[in-house]
Design brief:
alpha+beta; Alpha-Beta Plaits; two-stranded antiparallel sheet; 4 strands; 20% strand; transport
Length: 71
């Protein structure tokens, strides 16, 4: 999975940093999303997916993501 962001869409709510603090942070200047790990290990994929789903501005783009694990 690769993570991209649409910085111009980000409204600095912070859901991403709260849900996946090992993958996302917020800029000190304006609070917008900062990607800490653009190619996170597999055990962080679910957190990244949840953060992307809960972003109210759809500012997080996930590329090459695997489907969620069932079970």
């Amino acid at each position: 999975m690769k993570i991209g962001i649409h910085r111009n869409r980000c409204i600095a709510v912070g859901n991403c940093a709260a849900l996946a603090p090992e993958v996302f942070d917020q800029s000190d200047e304006d609070g917008t999303v900062v990607v800490l790990d653009a190619d996170p290990p597999e055990h962080r994929h679910e957190q990244a997916r949840e953060a992307a789903l809960r972003c109210p501005a759809s500012a997080i783009a996930l590329h090459g993501q695997a489907p969620p694990h069932e079970g």
